# Entry
Amino acid sequence: MSWIREETPPDENTWSERFRKFCANVLKTGPIPKHVAFIMDGNRRFARKKGMDRAEGHLMGFEKLAETLKWCRDLGINEVTVYAFSIENFKRSKEEVESLMEIARQKFARLLQEKEAIMKHGVCIRVLGNLTLLPLDIQRSIAEAMVMSKDNDKAFLNVCFAYTSRHEISNAVEEMAEGVEKGLIRPSDVSESLLDHCLYTSHSPDPHLLVRTSGEVRLSDFLLWQSSFSVLSFMEVLWPEFSFWHLCAAVLHYQRNHQAIMRARDQHNQEQEQALRQADYDSVVAELQQEDPDKTDQSKWAGVPILVQKQETERDRRVQEFLQHLDRKRANFLDNLVQKNEIKVCS
Amino acid sequence: MILHQVLLYLVHTFLAIRTWLASLYHGLKKPLAFKHRKRNVHRIKSDSKELSKLPIHVGLVVVEDDFRYGELASLVVWCAAMGISYISLYDSQGILKRNNTSLWQEIMKQQQELLGEDSNKYSIELVKGNRTATQLTGQKYSVEVRLLSSEDGRTDLLHAAQRWCQDVEAKRKKVGDLEPTGLEGLLQATKGAPDVDLVLKFGTVDSLLGFLPWQIRLTEILSLPTHHSIDYQTFLLALQSFGNIEQRFGK
# Structure
């Protein structure tokens, strides 16, 4: 029932475990997606198929998540993002939402009990979404888990909970708007890179591979921005039936698409940089044009490249300060939740 | 280890051969379907009526490097004949946009050929960005076709974000005013069009390569190996698959 599955000691390995390790080593000679996102779909259909009730299906789904995390470690995938609960799921029956919240309550509490394993494996846990929509006690467990593991850097687990991509993007835009209101940044500072750093996923690279189980072929409001250049792998298997071999198939699929994706991504990044440089150049020229429309002062015009450089440096400085402010704000939110928890525990 | 590398190479070679054989088989089946190549509009309309669900906005996402305007034009005209009102053609580099005249000529030609006498019942228009509503006279089926590239995806979203920030700076709006659907109103690329319900992706790259990130929230993504020599039967099968998909919307 635990989040972190330990390695079995080598001499206790079964043949199937040894074969799995062998296959993992074969795959690792090719490109491995460092960050994989999972839409863990199919728990309810699995429950129906096996004649279980839904809660059991979701519990099996959690077991599968823990197993998958270990397989990812074996394959050298060091960052995993999962879609655990959508804001849209609040539309389900009160009974089901409460049972899901209860599972979450138990699982996040369990996470805190596994502190030793988490620190030993260096796992950084992040829960992404509109946490204020959740019951307060769950918010507190989540905050504790995040604060406790925030400096870990060997493996990263991002759990999207009370999340939708559109909400995430709108939230990022509001953060930027607040930055503008406070005079920390200007509207012209808005760029892809800035938006990336304002999303909940700000500390993660874009996922290289996105896997959705149960045969559905849509993104359902998950990582819409971040998955623009991800390899999409839609599989028929229901999530609780996902196996190591399915994961290998997804990685093989990634390897086959790797070069095309890298090319497209690099091209896109180059175009973005060029566009930004052009915008900087244009704005410097526009300003000079206003000051000196007849180009009488040649020395000023000759200094355009330097002015462009200066503009870039100033923008970078503004953006850095703003992002530090945003990081502090988010850290404070979590720290406050943890402190309230500690006060509650002490009293 | 060398052994591991060789094994991986063999696995990938096997997978590549399997894909090649599948496309060969697919290619051989074509001549048999040849006699069905010329569809008439009435047959298409009746096929359309038999679908359990018809998409309102279809994205034709081309992730291949070689563009065949004739085939793309056929796809557009088949969609129009089916009663699909919004069609977005996408390639991440904007090659379709740059060659819009050639593409447009093909579409006009196919419209005449395929739709025949019904051709002037359809108003197939190329829409750029912000569309101003035009008054249509008579019984016309209005079809909006958009040619999009990656600047209509992430970049359009960024411009929307910038506009919002400018509004806040100018005190026209307050922080906290942004409604969930607020950003949508500021997007230009698909203004006036609903979200994309269905993407038909042509090519072997399994990624949307930057296609309209905001608008694909609930889009069904169906992949087809290529648009080269695409036949109506394949197109119809894809729409039938779409018709059979059940969405739960989070419930």
Chain B touches chain A through 54 residues (CB under 8 Å). The beta strands of chain B are 57-62, 86-90, 122-127, 141-148, 198-202, 220-224.
